[in-house]
Amino acid sequence: SVRASSSYADELVKTAKTVASPERGILAMDESNATCGKRLASIGLENTEASRQAYRTLLVTVPGLGQYISGAILFEETLYQSTTDGRKIVDVLVEQNIVPGIKVDKGLVPLAGSNNESWCQGLDGLASRSASYYQQGARFAKWRTVISIPNGPSELAVKEAAWGLARYAAISQDNGLVPIVEPEILLDGDHGIDRTFEVAKKVWAGVFFYLSQNNVLFEGILLKPSMVTPGAEAKDRATPEQVADYTLRLLHQRIPPAVPGIMFLSGGLSEVEATLNLNAMNQAPNPWHVSFSYARALQNTCLKKWGGRPENVKEVQEALLVRAKANSLAQLGKYTG
Ligand code: 13P
Predict the structure, then answer these.
(1) How many angstroms is it from 312 CA to the middle of ligand 1?
(2) What family is this protein classified in (predicted)?
């Protein structure tokens, strides 16, 4: 393919393998300034650059984090930011043996002509932004688009999501960044797990159809799917074993084994649920590295414990390490609670 002969092909494959390495997963800390503002408000803090810097400094400086975390996704502000004691955050990550990544999408907006669904912006200027991010030290990228089950999903929304992800993936690979392909199927709704499974199958069929059309090198991408679960408001709940069974069945039916890593999002699952589900998926060998790329399921406890107080930093850092280690064990299928 076009991209297989691109000058970055070997590096892309290597980067993807490093991020998808045993016992490790991704720390998603790429909340946009707006989302970060919501998280800070939940602990009574103002959304200032200084607060965001203090919080992100404490995350990346956790001693020993690189044992469990292979990659960290940053928002653009953080990619160019220093820690509170003046070291470049990117350098701190590299010292920790953690690959820096960057959220490159520009967020969701209403999809005209659909049933109140959304699409993801950010393709304009993406090639030159990606080249700058590479210069700045990023080696992988993330693009998150969403699919709503209660609002459809319409064929239009699925096609738009899949096409946007594929264009983004091709542009990222052209500029040396391993694309994380993330069509998040939102938890919202009272539908059962079978409905989620059926929608996820359609979404991934579309995504891989367009990835191939865009000559994307499968060995140089990472996926960030939602786990297959019942809707958040569904009466019938699923056990971790059921979630694992449905999710692995979906992956086997839709994801080529050439893809090196499946890094699940937590999507509003509790910290413990996210760990238990991942652990259940790793009870037998899989064709891909099956791991995590959690934001809330790694950070919820940390945020609460922090509360903006410097005297809490040590305790917060220990809390992050506890979650990271639990998910590292789950990646190996060895988490026991
Ligand atoms: P959650 O794990 O909180 O869903 O966030 C992951 C993420 O990066 C969403 O894009």
Answers:
(1) 25
(2) Belongs to the class I fructose-bisphosphate aldolase family.
Give the integer Cα–Cα distance in Å for 238 and 241. Answer: 8
Angle between helix axes 33-41 and 49-60 (nearest 10 degrees) is 90
In tens, the pLDDT along 261-312 reads 999 999 999 999 999 999 999 999 999 999 999 999 999 999 999 999 999 9
Query: pTM of the full predicted structure?
Result: 0.96
Is the Cβ atom of 144 under 6 angstroms away from ligand 1? yes
From residue 35, give the alpha-carbon distance in Å to each of 52, 94, 255, 275: 11, 26, 30, 23
Ligand 1 centroid to Cα of residue 253, in Å, is: 24
Residue nearest to atom 9 of ligand 1 (CA): 265
Q: What would the pLDDT profile of 112-147 be if each residue is shown by its tens digit?
A: 999 999 999 999 999 999 999 999 999 999 999 999
Closest ligand 1 atom number to CA of residue 274: 2
Known catalytic residues are 182, 224
Beta strand segments in 39-107, E: 69-74, 99-103
Cβ proximity of 277 and 241 under 8 Å: no
Distance of CA 102 to the CA centre of its chain: 11
